[in-house]
Amino acid sequence: MARAGITQEQVLEAAQALLEEGITPTVAAVRERIGSGSYTTISAHLAEWRSQNTQAPANIPEMPERVRGALNQVWAQAAAAAQEGLETQRQALEAMRRELDKERADMAAEIERLERAQEQAQEQIEHLRTSFTEAQTANREAQAQILDLKVDNARLGERASSAEGRGAELREQVQGLQQQLAALAAKREKPPAARRRATKPEPEA
Fold first, then answer.
1. 3-state secondary structure 119-141
2. Distance between CA 174 and CA 47 in Å, rounded?
3. Is 11 exposed, middle or buried (0-12, 13-18, 19+ CB in 10 A)?
4. What is the pLDDT of residues 54-96, one digit of tens each?
């Protein structure tokens, strides 16, 4: 079940009570007196109360000079501390900003380096792809040449075998011719008388 919010009557009563006690009815003071409530609601009701009680500040007793001086001193110290805190935060934020700028510059430089490295790698990949294609083409051409050489080698082997057989026949023919020449030479070197004796018929017995 939703909790009910504070009413305007509660805010008015709390503000009037604070005023009678000599306390300025601020939103924080009213909320502390009531014990709950949103600042927005209290502020709206308190503004309405102030508009209806324009003479209310006249009932507030004059603040003693000693209290005013102490409050001024506290306010000055609080302002100085706040200023010092703001300066410390400003310096910290400035240092953080410089660090972020440096990191951003380093990241931009790293991104640029990686982009250049990627471009170089892409160029190398394209070069390797081209080289691989050329190597494949050269390999196919070499395979075709090897096949042609194998065919030529087989043909040369057949021709060599045929040439060996023909050579053997020629050697036999040469040997036969050499023998015939040797026989003819032997006949030419025999003396005429020996040839006549060989050709003259022997007497009958």
1. HHHHHHHHHHHHHHHHHHHHHHH
2. 145
3. buried
4. 554 445 566 676 776 777 777 777 777 777 777 888 888 888 8
Q: What is the pTM of this model?
A: 0.33
Distance CA 106, CA 102 (A): 6
Distance separating alpha carbons of residues 10 and 45, to the nearest angstrom: 9
Amino acid, single-letter form, for residue 154: A
- The rounded Cα 72 to chain-centroid distance in angstroms is 63
Number of other CB atoms surrounding residue 26 within 10 Å:
14
pLDDT tens digit sequence for 148-198: 888 888 888 888 777 778 878 888 888 888 888 888 878 777 655 555 555
Eight-class DSSP state of 26: -
- The tokens of 70 are what? 């102490």
The rounded distance, in Å, linking the Cα atoms of 26 and 49 is 11
Tokens of 2: 């939703």
CB hemisphere CA count around 122 (13 angstroms): 6
- The alpha carbon of residue 139 and the mean position of all alpha carbons in its chain are separated, in whole angstroms, by 34
Cα–Cα distance, 190 to 187 (Å, whole number) = 5
Which residue ranges make up each domain of the chain?
Answer: 1-60
